[in-house]
Specification:
This protein is mainly alpha-helical. 53% of the residues lie in helices and 8% in strands. The strands form two sheets. It has a two-stranded parallel sheet. α1 packs parallel to α3 and α4 packs across α6.
Length: 144
């Protein structure tokens, strides 16, 4: 499931929009899992204010999702950032688009072309990336 923020709408203060995306995600998961949603959903998100707002956290709780703790000051631990967006940017590099709909269609097509293993690999590499991090007295240190 992909959500696109309207042109001109600021990313800050979109906690209501994000909460609605969480609810839509729950519906999509229920549909795709066909009754297996009782196994729970582990949600990984960064600590952006829209994601940690009272409205968003209430939606996450309402949906019954369990949050995977995010190491502070570690935005590089989001699979979307280090795996998905890097590949997506590579496929879009050098292309020009005439309108927003063209961009959205191209991105949707790109996601459709990715096989399940592409996403599994991104999530699986999260474990390795998290293990390389240590928090010492509030400071983040990369293990050698």
């Amino acid at each position: 499931m992909i959500g696109y923020l309207e042109r001109g709408k600021a990313v800050t203060g979109v906690s209501v929009y994000y909460a609605e995306l969480i609810r839509k995600l729950r519906s999509v998961i229920k549909e795709k899992r066909c009754g297996k949603s009782r196994h729970g959903v582990l949600l990984h998100q960064d600590d952006a204010s829209a994601h940690t707002s009272v409205v968003a956290m209430a939606a996450i709780l309402e949906c019954g999702f369990e949050l995977l703790s995010q190491l502070r000051y570690s935005p590089d631990l989001a699979p979307s950032d280090y795996h998905v967006f890097r590949s997506l940017k590579d496929s879009l590099r050098g292309r020009s688009f005439g309108c927003d709909e063209e961009v959205i269609d191209t991105i949707n097509d790109w996601f459709e072309l990715q096989d399940k293993q592409f996403f599994v690999d991104g999530v699986n590499s999260l474990t390795h990336r998290r293990e390389k991090r240590v928090v010492l007295e509030g400071n983040l240190i990369e293990k050698l």
